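The protein record minuted underneath.
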Amino acid sequence: MNVVERPVKAVPPELLAHFAAIVGERHALTDANDIEPYMIEDRGLYRGRSPMVLRPGSTTEVSAILKLANETGTPIVPQGGNTGLVGGQTPHNGELLLSLKRMDRIREVDATSNTMTCEAGVVLIKAQEAAEAQNRLFPLSLGAEGSCTIGGNLSTNAGGTGALAYGVARELVMGLEVVLADGRVLNNLRKLKKDNTGYDLRHIFVGAEGTLGIITAAVLRLFPRPRAVETAFIGVPSPYEALSLLNLAYERAGGSVTSFELIPRIALEFAVKHAPTCRDPLTNKHRWYVLMELSTQARDGLRAVMEDILTAGVEHKLIEDATIAESLDQTKGLWLLRHHIADTQKYEGGSIKQDVSVPVNAVPDFIAEATAKVEAMIPGCRPVPFGHLGDGNIHYNVSQPVGADRAEFLKRWDEINDAVFGVVAKHAGSISAEHGIGVMKRALLPSVKDPVAYDLMCSLKRMLDPQGILNPGKVL
């Protein structure tokens, strides 16, 4: 992917030594082999460069790093688990990289207040497990949960499969600790559900991708663990029937509908072919599938609700076939299939990926129109649209034609994006639903954002980071 070069003055050795002294020599990486894992991301689209990776172990150290960076005009790129998909976590122009992985302490789980306070480097699955140990649920869940971190999730306002019922990352945050560009620490780690004392500053930093401040800790919202969960894998004729099924499920189960994922046949085939643990859950092939999950605090009756939804779906010709998980292992198998959709596409060659959202009622039309456009542009290409139908967030990916040259196909990334984003605009959608802007979509942002909103964003950046040292060249 093309990245705009922004000249960065080389950091003098004596200044590097001052930065290293803050975290200790052991946690200031300068060897090329040690730095390399921080410079590349899984898809291989971006490769960064940096003279040093700083690995602070405390908020105090992060504060000292940014104070020195601000005084010397040294640009800093913060990084969590390095699982970002838009190049926001990569130092493209020789900036110092600040990794938050060492800040991985869960400071408190308060089951009475239904909150958890944890540091930015806590891996998402560790946060989920800590909540579970107290019979609570932290509902943020996504394919990279074994390696992505809470800080990264908040900085990109991650969505995931639980957003339908529980909201995106922004809605799961009650308080934040943030280090500002000048090294000051905003301490707003509060558990209060009601705090009407002026502006709510936490939402400025969630989704800002480290351009306004570095999140070092957060108070997260927890929920009681469901006592009953039912998971079904359903074959449907098309996204139109899937949408009707979603509405039917809402009518029969209301807030118990906690996940509703749309999956095309081609995505299932990729997962089964390339992930050894994945199996096709249904006997016959179907063009489209839905992975639906219901959960409730009631101990009994949820199975009957699921069966009622499926029976009604068959009667209304919305469902062609379905299976309900009979065990925890079967449930895990269905979700494993869903989570392998993204990573197994790489084995099929080049994949041009979009993370977009449209109003829920427009999803079927969006998929049909976008598919017609890209197939006309590249005959033989293989669209793989999948994702969170319940909240209108579709990952519209396009795999290369079988046997095509990968490099030549990927050269058409911007062309395909323009076509898909044109359909998104027609339906009043968004070019980024949950992955962020980073560098990948930065040039597009002024053309899709309300001009006044974009101007306010630029004003916030100038106010909070007047020297432009925080993740320069990202978002704006």
